[in-house]
Amino acid sequence: MYKKAPMKKFFRLFFPGLYLFAVFSGCLYARPQAETEAPVEIGAAIEAPVPEPPAAQPLVFTAAESVVQGDIFCVLIQSPQTNRIKGVLADLSGGDGKKILSMTGFPVPPRATTPAADNADPADPAPETGETWAVLGGISSVQRPGDYTLNLRASCEGEEDTVFSTPIAIRGRSFISENIPLNEDMSSLRADPDPRKAAESRELWALLVKTDTSSVYHLDSLSLPVNGNFRETSFFGDRRTFLYTDGGKANSIHYGLDYATPRGTPVYASGAGKIVMAKQRVLTGFSIVIEHLPGVYTLYYHLDKIDVKLEQLVKTGDKIGESGFTGLATGPHLHWEVRVAANAVEPKNLLTLPLLPGAH
Ligand SMILES: [Zn+2]
Question: Is 227 found in the same domain as 184?
């Protein structure tokens, strides 16, 4: 209170002076500008130059020339303009024109355009403009090696569809053959007719052929679903013969990898994604399916415990359950499988190669 009176007095004296100074200095500042700068036409200053709309440049297609049984193959469709491609459909056809695979393309999210200063690479090109779509397919382990044709149709806004065809050779590889004797319980589990098995098989197939073009969760390589050096007891593409107790036999293909794991071993998500199945099934026991990309799924079978719920989003390495000994199994193990456009592919390849090569 005591000090306010002198301060008020000071401001009363000071402010009129400050106001006059501001007006004066404003005049001084404005005058040289008006004299030295060229007269500005108000209309020109407001109107930004309108760029010519870019002419539609041809789409660029990138595809492999050959693939091996069990490989993922990827076709990239690049447009210099954004928001141009509206849809992409593709198929792989044999020499007789018969389709062996149908695929639906999806838009790839733009890559990060602002790398952290520490990681900035001067050799890195400027952020790409335009847009990229991808088509992913999986080559079945039983697909006959030979020459095939990839046919692709891209629909663009206000343009004729762009059609692209290119030859793709499928090369063969070797697979293991094995006999698997089943005890009485497992023999009847596998061989006895059960409408639940057929219904569950149809349900899974309907899920695996689904391509939700907005389901883009994981572009990189996958991680092992178990920690530790567990023995692999079966491999991708094994040609199996089940031997029943009554002397009967049945041939089968093994679609994934088997890891011999003690019951209760934590099982982790191999990549980021959405849980699209988490339930008990007759033949595969407690089972989980994760969607990582449109048409790309990982499957986890014979679990003792499921820790996730349908529609739940998971990150790479999240614990999703525990391995076990449920369903058709001759011992405790985890069955891990990867599906692309409904076909099972070699999971080991994807521990080092990204799901979407060249796009990330
Ligand atoms: Zn298996």
Answer: yes
